[in-house]
Amino acid sequence: MDDKTKWNAKYKERLNEPEEPKPNSRLKSLTTYFSGGTALDIACGLGGNSILLAEHNYLVQAIDISDVAIKFV
């Protein structure tokens, strides 16, 4: 199984979960220092970090190997 197929399968499964994607806890703890701007989220998955950054006035470019994840974000 190639990497793209593996990650697409993983994210398809996670889309059935009722929870929204969560940002990394370390990133979340730093939000008081956020001032907006631009951000690049590489291997963004379902976008927990991207969403958090966007909520804090960042223009986010999100990239992932999984087209399932990118379509969700």
From TrEMBL:
Q: Membrane spanning segments where? A: none
Q: InterPro entries in the record, alphabetically? A: SAM-dependent_MTases_sf, TehB-like_dom
One matching Pfam family is TehB
Annotated Tellurite resistance methyltransferase TehB-like domain residues:
29-73
Annotated region (Disordered) at 1-27
Give the Basic and acidic residues compositional bias ranges.
1-23
CDD domains, per the entry: AdoMet_MTases
Q: Which domain of life is it from?
A: Bacteria
Protein name listed in UniProt:
Tellurite resistance methyltransferase TehB-like domain-containing protein
